[in-house]
TrEMBL record, chain A:
Protein name listed in UniProt: ABC transporter permease
GO BP annotation list: transmembrane transport
Keyword hit for NADP: no
Transmembrane domains' residue ranges: 37-57, 108-133, 145-172, 218-239, 260-280
Residues making up the signal peptide according to the UniProt record: none
Source species: Teichococcus deserti
Main location: membrane
Membrane topology field: Multi-pass membrane protein
Pfam families on file: BPD_transp_1 (PF00528), OppC_N (PF12911)
Top-level taxon of origin: Bacteria
Localisation: Cell membrane
Phylogenetic classification of the source organism: Bacteria, Pseudomonadati, Pseudomonadota, Alphaproteobacteria, Acetobacterales
InterPro entries: BP-dependent_transpt_permease, MetI-like, MetI-like_sf, OppC_N
ABC transmembrane type-1 domain span: 97-286
Family: Belongs to the binding-protein-dependent transport system permease family.
TrEMBL record, chain B:
Signal sequence annotation: none
GO terms under cellular component: plasma membrane
Protein source organism: Teichococcus deserti
Protein name in the entry: Dipeptide ABC transporter ATP-binding protein DppD
Lineage of producing organism: Bacteria, Pseudomonadati, Pseudomonadota, Alphaproteobacteria, Acetobacterales
Record bears the keyword Thylakoid: no
Family classification: Belongs to the ABC transporter superfamily.
Gene3D superfamilies in UniProt: P-loop containing nucleotide triphosphate hydrolases
Length: 297, 328, 360
């Protein structure tokens, strides 16, 4: 046997072995991707500023002032100006980020657990279980997501909690579909059969061989849904179904400032810019993640 | 007679943002009209890339072709898009391993061939369809008229391959490039297609470049073989001579390790190790690390091409050179 | 039937040793007996997804494998050879048929459970790339089986490294690598190591060398023979490559459209094939000699679709000796459990009524 070893191992054509591990490789690649790093930093800044809003905000976001309505940025210490009721825009944007980001992220998180879990089960078991789960999802798919979110939260009576429940329900079907597709693909690869052929119990095969290979696509898709979630949540608030005034929320602020677009266009655009920056950075980060997690490229 | 194909010092680099890999490294050969040449080699040896370079089918942004390619007197590397289009399908055409890739799955095969004929010849569709029928007869497809009406997926593997050959022959090419066209076929079908290609080549007098990894296939179809290893042609010669008395140690290794009725109680001859990583080729002869007869000098530089007998060229320091090589 | 003409039972080939505590039936008990295996895949169609037809992938296949021997299975695409492999590992449930492993019936009451079968029989797949988990270092893939059966991680990893050494890979260099960092031949060595991790008695090799380059293929074939000798293994070797099958097999079984058409000792079958299909298959091999090229294809056309296989003898549509009888009545193979050289062809049966039937 030793001769065989020598023959094969000595002229090893590969460079020195990289003992970096899967997540190590992903991290290495992310660190060397300036675009993703930049947007990641921006995203982190947005999240941190929302979390620390009470300490960062220069003014009380609820304090109105008739004389200071719709002032331009820089007026009397209002760095980003004031809104239609004379409240400080910067403070409201910072506080608004808390609600908006929560409404964007919590539903996606819940939907990833529920929808992703259902999808993996459907994909792995196949057959009747798959048909049952996926047909139910198809029913939800028949409605446009915006319409569905509006209908559900409208039927439940609006409010932050109901809005989040509505968004969760909206996100379950697409996540389930992505998880199911990814699992079915992996499920049909020989290495899963090979693992089954060792006689190992199904839960071990699922845990060690299937989950690791579907987690990537699911997480990437979920992270791209967060930006959709923020936009949908803003949309709900815009329609008066999500956050109720005077709570600060980007969507709600955008709605309220709509009429002021001719008076103070810069201020009116600000909530929109916040939404745009958040979703763009989320998309860029999830794109970078997708590239970094593809080990084979 | 003028050679139909002349390739001189062809090199192909694949370029990405991070790296540059030389897949074909100084390949030279020429072919007379009516000659069948097999490019033999293992995966990654550069045989398919060489063939694709002849037709400039490599992605232009990610590959760089160097050297000189002349087909039917024209400089292929200098051609503009129009000249290139006229060459593809007019002078040169190609058949692939997987015929499904050559056909549009939702259009009847007869219509596809008719369209190609109509476009290239400037004739009517009806005339094109008539020509398609002739071609189906030419490639011996039984009940050709009915098969022209079929969609690609309705044909069996062997018939699909024949239909693709018909498509490739539709404009009477002078040179047919065949990229492992029988590899995916069953044994009983492969021999049918090989015999068909051989007789078509004789009837139409075209040249064929046939890429394969299978020595047996080369023995069935080739006039000449070029053995490729790590991006270089290491040996060329007539198929008879190369198979009977190989000059390059890689060729003899390949012949020895091909399983063909060897005695069962003895281990097979093998070439130790694995083909080199194209990103980090050994400095001298690429085969030296696996070569049982390697000398010290083998690592110093790529061995030059020597021609020990007319029509035979090998790149190996062990091969004596009584004659000047015909081409380097 | 040529039963009467069967030669004496040859002794089991040498490498088999009788010191395995798991050996229950003794040297004369075949390690594997398969009787009447059937697997039909439904084809769904129409609006309601009803079953409109069946692919008769495996249709009544019977054979046995003696301890320590290598049974080669050859055939073209669609002949059911790969389905047989998956049925043997119970990665698919057979629709009918019986599988007896060392005297114990598999999957039946009081017999061998599927999990127990999989401890004694393992499989190597054709596609060396897709049969390894891309997110797992290769030594993890090798150690997975033993760990699933409760071996502590450190011990399983040590075993994995030992097995990698055995298949010719330096564990320090290759153990921590991911599959995409290995070449095709190296991946297939890992797959072989993984199959050996549970110390199986039988290994099913489904086109295990077909995707490899010729020079690497020969290395892996030599390795398989060495391992077989050292570990007293029994192989079922499935391939479309007649040359490879001949070199590695003691006995060979030829399949066509889900049925066994011929089975027998390798040399007998290759030197004196009895079934016209086997003859055609052998004559279809490239000649390896430019001066004696094949001038005429032994058979024409493609193998028919296994969805609606031809009636009677399934080869009659391509057979040069076909007679009306062949389309109406299916020839039978007879009982091959003695290890005889048999063919399912009317010409082999003096009483069949075929004009070329031979008296034997």
């Amino acid at each position: 046997m030793s001769t065989t070893i020598d023959k094969v191992a000595t002229p090893a054509p590969m460079a020195a072995p990289r003992q970096r591990g899967y997540w190590g490789t992903v991290g290495y690649r992310l660190r060397h991707d300036p675009v993703t790093l930049c947007f990641g930093a921006l995203l982190l800044a947005i999240i941190l500023s929302a979390v620390f809003a009470p300490w960062l905000a220069p003014f009380d976001p609820y304090r109105e002032s008739i004389i200071r309505r719709l002032k331009a940025p820089g007026y009397m210490g209002h760095m980003l100006g004031t809104d239609e009721l004379g409240r400080d825009m910067l403070s409201r944007l910072l506080h608004g980020g808390r609600l908006t980001l929560t409404m964007g992220m919590v539903p996606v998180l819940l939907a990833t657990l529920i929808g992703g879990g259902l999808g993996v089960v459907a994909g792995f078991l196949g057959g009747v279980a798959n048909a049952a789960i996926m047909r139910v999802m198809d029913v939800f798919y028949a409605f446009p997501s915006v319409l569905l979110a509006v209908a559900i939260s409208g039927a439940m009576g609006g409010g932050v909690l109901n809005g989040m429940i509505a968004l969760t329900l909206v996100f379950i079907p697409p996540l389930c579909r992505v998880a199911e597709t990814a699992t079915t693909q992996v499920r049909n690869l020989d290495f899963v059969d090979a693992a089954r052929a060792t006689g190992a119990p199904l839960r071990l095969v699922l845990w060690h061989h299937v989950l690791g290979n579907v987690l990537g696509p699911i997480l990437i898709y979920a992270s791209s849904l967060i930006s959709v979630g923020i936009i949908l949540a803003s949309g709900l608030s815009f329609l008066g179904l999500g956050v109720k005034p005077p709570e600060p929320d980007w969507g709600l602020m955008l709605n309220a400032l709509r009429q002021a677009i001719y008076v103070s266009p810069l201020v009116a655009a600000m909530p929109g810019i916040a939404i745009f920056l958040t979703s763009v950075s989320l998309n860029m980060v999830s794109d970078g993640l997708r590239a970094a997690m593809d080990v084979r490229s | 007679m003028q050679p139909l194909v002349e390739v001189e010092d062809l090199s192909v680099d694949f370029v990405t943002r991070e790296s540059r890999v030389r897949a074909v490294n100084g390949v030279s050969f020429s072919m007379m009209p009516g000659e069948v040449m097999c490019m033999l080699g293992e995966s990654g040896s550069g045989k398919s890339v060489t063939m694709r370079a002849l037709m400039r089918l490599l992605p232009p942004k990610r590959s760089e072709i160097g050297g000189r390619i002349r087909i039917a007197g024209q400089d292929v590397l200098a051609m503009d898009d129009r000249a290139l289009r006229r060459m593809r399908g007019g002078v040169v055409s190609m058949i692939f391993q997987e015929p499904m890739t050559a056909f549009d799955p939702v259009v009847r095969v007869g219509d596809q061939i008719a369209e190609v004929v109509a476009q290239h010849r400037g004739v009517s569709r009806r005339e094109g369809l008539r020509r398609a029928l002739e071609l189906f007869d030419l490639v011996r497809i039984p009940s050709a008229e009915r098969r022209l009406q079929a969609y690609p997926h309705e044909l069996s593997g062997g018939l699909r391959q024949r239909a693709m050959i018909a498509l490739a022959l539709s404009c009477e090419p002078k040179l047919l490039l065949a990229d492992e066209p029988t590899t995916a076929l069953d044994a009983t079908v492969q021999i049918q297609v090989l015999i068909l290609l051989r007789s078509l080549q004789r009837e139409l007098g075209m040249s064929v470049v046939f890429v394969t990894h299978d020595l047996g296939v080369a023995a069935e179809i080739a006039d000449r073989v070029a053995i490729m290893y790590a991006g270089r042609i290491v040996e060329t010669g007539s198929v008879r001579e190369v198979l009977r008395s190989p000059l390059h140690p890689y060729t003899s290794g390949l012949l020895g390790s091909t399983v063909h009725d060897q005695p069962r109680d003895r281990a097979l001859e093998t070439i130790p190790g694995a083909p080199p990583d194209m990103r980090a080729l050994p400095p001298g002869c690429s085969f030296a690390p696996r070569c049982p007869q390697a000398l010290g000098e083998c690592a110093s530089g790529p061995p030059p091409a020597v021609s020990p007998a007319p029509g035979r060229v090998a790149r190996c320091l062990r091969v004596a050179a009584p004659q000047q090589p015909e081409y380097a | 039937m040529s039963m009467s003409a069967s030669p004496a039972i040859p002794p089991p080939p040498l490498p088999w040793r009788d010191n395995d505590p798991r050996d229950r039936g003794g040297p004369q008990q075949p390690l594997l007996i398969v009787r009447g295996f059937k697997k039909h895949f439904p084809i769904r169609g129409g609006l309601l997804g009803r079953t409109v037809a069946h692919v008769r992938a495996v249709d009544g296949v019977s054979f046995h494998v003696r301890k320590g021997e290598t049974l080669g299975i050859v055939g073209e695409s669609g002949c059911g050879k790969s389905t047989v492999a998956r049925l043997l590992m119970r990665l698919m449930q057979p629709d009918a048929g019986e599988q007896i492993f060392d005297g114990d019936s598999v999957g039946s009451e009081g017999g061998l459970s599927v999990a127990e079968l999989r401890r004694q029989a393992q499989m190597v797949f054709q596609d060396s790339a897709s049969s390894l988990n891309p997110r797992m270092p290769v030594q993890g893939s090798v150690a997975f089986g033993p760990m699933a059966f409760g071996m502590p991680k450190a011990e399983a990893m040590a075993l994995a490294r030992e097995l990698l050494t055995k298949v010719g890979l330096n564990p320090a260099l290759f153990g921590g690598r991911y599959p995409h960092e290995l070449s095709g031949g190296q991946k297939q060595r890992v797959n072989i190591a993984r199959a050996l991790a549970l110390k199986p008695r039988m290994v099913i090799l489904d086109e295990a060398v077909s995707a490899l380059d010729k020079s690497v293929e020969a290395q892996v074939l030599n390795l398989l023979q060495t391992l077989k000798r050292e570990l007293s293994l029994t192989y079922v070797f499935i391939s479309h490559d007649l040359g490879v099958v001949r070199w590695i097999s003691d006995r060979v079984m030829v399949m066509y459209l889900g049925e066994v058409v011929e089975i027998g000792p390798a040399d007998q079958l290759y030197n004196a094939p009895k079934h016209p299909y086997t003859r055609a298959l052998l004559a279809s091999r490239p000649a390896m000699d430019p001066d004696h090229r094949r001038e005429e294809a032994p058979v024409s056309g493609d193998p028919p679709n296994p969805v609606n296989p031809p009636s009677g003898c399934r080869f009659h549509t391509r057979c040069p000796f076909a007679e009306p009888l062949c389309a109406s009545r299916a020839p039978s193979l007879g009982d091959s459990e003695g290890g005889a050289h048999l063919a399912a062809c009317h010409m082999q049966d003096p009483d069949s009524g075929h004009s070329q039937a031979r008296l034997q």
